[in-house]
Design brief:
Layout: E1 3-6, E2 9-12, H1 13-35, H2 39-62, H3 64-69, H4 84-98, H5 104-125, E3 137-140, E4 145-147, E5 156-161, H6 166-181, E6 186-192, H7 196-206, E7 213-216, H8 220-225, E8 232-236, E9 242-247, H9 252-262
Parallel strand pairs: 5-6, 6-7
Antiparallel strand pairs: 1-2, 3-4, 3-7, 5-8, 8-9
Length: 263
């Protein structure tokens, strides 16, 4: 499973783990503040904010050419894109500046609690990495049967989407563009639960042309791969082994990172 299902929404394990880790840090710091020093309370809220800002800024700097093309995308934090190393460095620097030395050991206790919580959820979020390309037969927009096994030999990015899904609609133009820029990778866009007329009309309206837009009207792929929501993107190596999976909308910078991991 990629995350926790809450009605129609699915929260990725990574995001849930980070949120609960920050909560653990704040709670432990608050307990210590009542017994040791009240400054630990304000430190906790400050270090969370500084850590998040540092992690985001670091990720943006690492992917500056991508963000330079669309500066406003720096604000699209719902797409993900945080570097934990930069976050830890920013939080550590903030701690050194705002707290005296005799309180540093207490911040380590709060950080350890956060690390333990995050570790539990990040481990829980790792699942079906042993999976391979599903033995599912899809159809092209023209009605031709297509087997995913035919894509072996190159890395495969398999995107499960639907025309009614807002985040799918937002990310699809970017993914189609990258599919043309990276011919060494097969990009497969498998529409879930929809017929050819609906999908073809959407692509024409948006002016999108992709090599492999396939139909999965019975959502066999979502069932076989255990997808909990749309969009969900799967990354397979050239032997057809699952390398990574991502629940939710992808930014260009994140997608490029996944592509680098496939090489």
């Amino acid at each position: 499973m990629d995350g926790v299902q809450l009605g129609p929404f699915a929260i990725p394990w990574v995001r849930l783990g980070v949120a609960l880790a920050f909560l653990a840090l704040v709670l432990v710091a608050e307990l210590l503040a009542r017994r040791v020093d009240r400054r630990l309370s304000s430190w906790a809220s400050g270090v969370v904010l500084v850590g998040l800002l540092g992690a985001r800024l670091g990720f943006v700097l690492e992917n500056l050419p991508v963000f330079a093309r669309d500066p406003l995308s720096v604000l699209y934090v719902w797409q993900g894109g945080f570097d934990p190393i930069w976050g830890i460095l920013a939080g550590g620097g903030y701690t050194l500046m705002v707290l005296p030395k005799h309180l540093w050991r207490y911040t380590l206790a709060a950080a350890l609690a956060a690390g333990l919580v995050a570790g539990v959820f990040l481990t829980r979020g790792r699942g079906a990495e042993a999976q391979g390309l599903p033995e599912v037969q899809l159809t092209s927009l023209g009605g031709t049967p297509v087997s995913l096994e035919a894509f072996r030999g190159k890395p495969v990015v398999l995107n499960l989407w639907a025309t009614w899904c807002p985040p799918c609609r937002r990310e699809l133009p970017m993914m189609v563009r990258l599919s043309h820029e990276h011919p060494e990778v097969h990009f497969v866009f498998a529409s879930q639960g929809e017929g050819p007329a609906v999908v073809r009309r959407f692509l024409e309206e948006e002016g999108l042309e992709a090599d492999w837009v396939l139909l999965d009207p019975e959502t066999h792929l979502s069932q076989d791969l255990g997808a909990q929501g749309l969009p969900t993107t799967f990354f397979f190596d050239r032997e057809g082994r699952l390398v990574a999976r991502h629940l939710g909308e992808l930014s260009e910078a994140l997608l490029l990172g996944y592509l680098r991991a496939l090489r």
